[in-house]
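Q: What does the predicted 3D structure of DUF202 domain-containing protein look like?
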Amino acid sequence: MSDSRWPRGVYGTGEEPDYRFSFANERTFLAWIRTALALLASGVAVDAVDLGLPGVLETVLALLLIGLGLLCAVLSWVRWASCERAMRNQQPLPSFAVGLVLVAGVVVAAVVVLVLKV
């Protein structure tokens, strides 16, 4: 039986996992997409609302948040595909150390706002 679903790099390998695991993987993907949208909205808000920070710092903070949103969106797809592929091949799920970059970026943004606003 030929599987015509896309991406073939995911669906063209291994065996079909229990659909509940695939649905859970999709829900996790959507949670990451929501996080990406929140980061993008935060970046736009920092740029649109005067926080009383120096202009260059507000621009850098907005770009940081927008960049994190972009990274989060891309990583959500990579993570979904790698987990789905691992489930189909009955392998352990991959680690997600790149999430530390997202955490560090959000912490830096929060510290900048807290330190300069207080």
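A (community wiki): The structure tokens above were generated from the sequence. The radius of gyration is 18 Å. The CA atoms of residues 30 and 73 lie 10 Å apart.
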